[in-house]
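Structure ticket #2291
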Amino acid sequence: MAADLIVKRSRLKGAGKGLFTKRDIKKGERIVEYLGEVVTEAELDRRAEKDIFGYAFFINKNKCIDAYFTPNELARYANDASGLKRIAGIRNNACYDVCKNSGWIKAEKDIKAGEEIYVSYGAEYWKDIRYNLKLEKEKASSKKKNK
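Resolution: structure written out below.
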């Protein structure tokens, strides 16, 4: 399946790269395995404290897949259409799926060749992102005042 996927500029503004399919994908089909470094949830938390996060797939507290340091792994490029900036008519078309202790992206609907693959990151992820953006804005504002 990896040969049927391509990474290029996402249709979502500000998202960077996205994951696209070169062939039609049927609803329910596993698209790509989520691969990367296998770490614990505690290690993911330590990395997040150092701002090393954003490409993690949680299987259980003892097995999480972190693709942060593996830019060649395709699944990490699937974006969330329900993120900070939404585009009318673009919705998530896939989901994360755990099968036999492995992480996958699976089609939730038929996906046509050439379409981008979108998967929900979950409400907690976006809550954390909004909180971090708020902190950055407050920090920048504080710096301006102190000049």
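Closing remark: The two ends are 54 Å apart (CA to CA).
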